[in-house]
Amino acid sequence: MSEQPTTPTETQRASADYFTGVAWVTSLVKASDGTDCSVGEVTFEPGARNNWHSHPSGQILVVTMGTGLYQERGQPARVLRPGDAVSIALGVVHWHGATATSLFTHYAINPGASKGVVDWGAPVTDDEYRAAQP
Amino acid sequence: MSEQPTTPTETQRASADYFTGVAWVTSLVKASDGTDCSVGEVTFEPGARNNWHSHPSGQILVVTMGTGLYQERGQPARVLRPGDAVSIALGVVHWHGATATSLFTHYAINPGASKGVVDWGAPVTDDEYRAAQP
């Protein structure tokens, strides 16, 4: 069994509980019994970022548009551009989002989705965010 | 531990043992202990397609350019366009590739990569390929 090809539908605004600023999420692939892997596309408006968080089975980001930031707890932030990919091991606390001056879009690939997709922590403060700018 | 962001390097021509026509493969993410999921980008020139095959842990395709075809054994072919995604369950025998008149690019997402990525079968014959055209 495999799913039909799907075209993205119903872009949703990311929850203000877990994001600072405006971000949009489009589900491309829901986790199925066949792959247990979900895929979404996330666009952050300038200044937007998600809270500190980690993933029970890890996550892969593939950047498709704009300029973004990725930071692991205790590490300097890294700038992400189209074509960049990040493989995030399970349990690593981090955040990602747009720079203050650019839109930013990435695919978010969630293997092992049946174990849960994300464990949310605190918002990235304005000070943390400012310090992360390139 | 997580890997550094990576920019694609060393695009390789897909093996003539498993592809008909010219296709190009760029590795974006190698399977790591953290996610056990690899991601590649594949571009098929017009007329190119891979052999019949299946995946030990399934595979997800996300289309980014052009017009392509996806066919499961015994099913009609489906046309794929940018934004389409296909979730392919483990063991499902299928092929994918460009139409006869279009380039075609997709991401190939391989969860559970440590169980192996692909089991190859016979080439898609010219008759099978002609019958699949939209």
Summarize the structure.
Helices cover 5% and strands 43% of the residues of chain A. Chain A is mainly β.
Per DSSP, the total helix count of chain A is 1
* Biggest interface, residues from each chain: A-B, 43 and 43 residues
Overall mean pLDDT of chain A stands at 93
Main sheet: strands, sense, barrel of chain A: 6 strands, antiparallel
- Provide the spatial order of strands within the biggest beta sheet of chain A: 1-3-4-12-7-10
Helix and strand string of chain A, N-terminal first?
EEEEEEEEEEEEEH
Number of strands of chain A: 13
SS strand fraction of chain A:
35-45%
Compute the separation of the termini of chain A in Å: 46 Å
The best one-word shape of chain A is globular
Low-pLDDT runs of chain A: none
Question: Looking at the chains present, what oligomeric state does this protein adopt?
Answer: homodimer
- Rg measurement of chain A, Å: 14 Å
Helical proportion of chain A, percent range: under 10%
Structural class based on helices, strands and sheet pairing of chain A: mainly beta
Relevant terms:
homodimer; 134 residues; mainly beta; six-stranded antiparallel beta sheet; 13 strands
Describe this entry's structure for a reader.
By secondary structure, chain A is mainly beta. In chain A, 5% of the residues lie in helices and 43% in strands. Chain A contains 1 helix and 13 strands. Chain A has one helix at residues 126-132; strands at 12-13, 19-20, 23-29, 37-44, 49-50, 53-54, 59-66, 68-72, 78-80, 85-88, 94-98, 104-111, 119-120. In chain A, the strands form 4 sheets. Chain A has a 6-stranded antiparallel β-sheet with strand order 1-3-4-12-7-10, with no helix packed on it. In chain A, strands 9-8-11 form a 3-stranded antiparallel β-sheet, with no helix packed on it. Chain A has a two-stranded antiparallel sheet with strand order 2-5. In chain A, strand 3 and strand 4 (37-44) form a beta hairpin. The radius of gyration of chain A is 14 Å and the shape is globular. The mean pLDDT of chain A is 93. The interface between A and B is large, with 43 and 43 residues.
